[in-house]
Amino acid sequence: MLKVLPKQTVSMYTRDGVRLDADIYRPDAVGEFPVLLMRQPYGRAIASTVVYAHPSWYAAQGYIVVIQDVRGRGTSEGEFQLFAHEINDGADTVNWAASLPGSNGKVGMYGFSYQGMTQLYAAIAQPPALTTICPAMIGYDLYTDWAYEGGAFCLQTNLAWAIQLATETARLRGDLPAYQALYAASRNLPVNNPEILQQLAPESFYHDWVAHPEPDSYWQQLSPKSHFQNVDLPMFHIGGWFDTYLRGTLHLYQDMTNRATTPQHLLIGPWAHLPWGRKVGEADFGKLAASPVDEMQIRWFNQFLKGVDTGLLDELPVRLFEMGSNMWHYFPNIFTSNQKSYLLSSTGLGNIREDAGSLIPDAQSPIPNPQSPVPNPQDILVHDPWRPVPSVGGHAAMPGGVFERSPIDCRSDVLTYTSAPLTADLSLLGDILVEISCQSDQDSYDLSAVLSQVYPDGRVYNITQGYLHCQDSKNTVTRQVKLQPSFIRITQGNCLRLSLSVACYPAYAMNSGNGAVLSSEALLKAQIITLTVNGGELLLSVVL
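Structure (tokenized):
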């Protein structure tokens, strides 16, 4: 490792004359070095050290590291508008960084979340010096991958992020009353009063996101996916099984592998959005779950920015962490698993007794539960907006990860379907789908599906989940809920469990019976929803 010079603060100007400020970390050595660039909105001194090594560590590996405040954030000039300027500003910054004294003319980018998004927007402009990127935990299609899931608004994460950015805006403006109110809200999120953003941050992106509940032209114009057709760069994609934006990571990776001529590698760890460590919620996935990302990125950058043959291109491109065994596995491609099906069966008391609903392997029993006193039992649950089913863990709630959820499964507004104890270990890898035949007494309702494993002592730990917003719902129809992909080995003797409800709040906006509850007025009009489930099927991707 090289010694590193003291940090320098420098400025550049965009094509429209806006000053952007950055910190630069340089090796204390003679020669030319590649540039690593991170562009972010949270104050450049943070430099995403919540998940990455400090920039000085990267500089010590022989890189000039540039951490820049995007337009209107930190000390950079201009007005911050979510993602609006990142294509042009990103290209201007890459060109400027490539021409820095001591640069070898090649630029790579890294960063997660917003810092991952800035990589995609810069890549759209195709500046010649941008040689490779390492996008982590991003939204490729902003509607389906970030703001909405299954047509439902991701309330908790969107509201928390909007309040965080609005609080920083108030600080930069010196608006003490707004800052104090928003800061207090950020520490005790007013999930029943999102109007605080209208009152204190009327220019927030949040209002546009709420105003566009369908994937219309607003999202098409804003999303990287709409402008990415000609991008072909080597990319190291990074995700987490419990990350809010895993859909985006997989969406981008699959699109690039389908059409790109350059290497595309994928890493998915057992992590939530942050931090990237061995403990995620109440689960400890062992010492191997500690993040290997910094070392892997340096190896990636050495390959593509320094021309060093690291052996990277001789390895299988997909590296996935299997929870349960707590081991990393390499694959030539992603999710080439076999399908296993379970049918939902019940005595009609699936919302009252944990033993009333069953998951029956499809080959064993296509008929209703023999314990049922009626020929075709239905399960009925009643959702009360006064006490919606709470969200716990998973990828959509805060905090995310694995939590013991047996108290939730005991609620009468949750249907549970549990398998017999497994007679052998079962390894799930990839997509998980639930098909439910159901109807509602209201015009609209939501479906929340959580897959868990049940231990012999009765403890229940979530594996993954999915959510679907349903409209025109008074007729019996079959709904498909896509759960977040996972990779987990379930131990012999444990059971699988599927839990269904019509709320998962505040992770997702509650349904009023006529649409999403995103204001106090909508909450006032929220209706009791009665949902009838006539059966269904759980489709798993398994490793044989």
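Residues 155-173 form the longest helix (19 residues). The longest strand covers residues 426-440.
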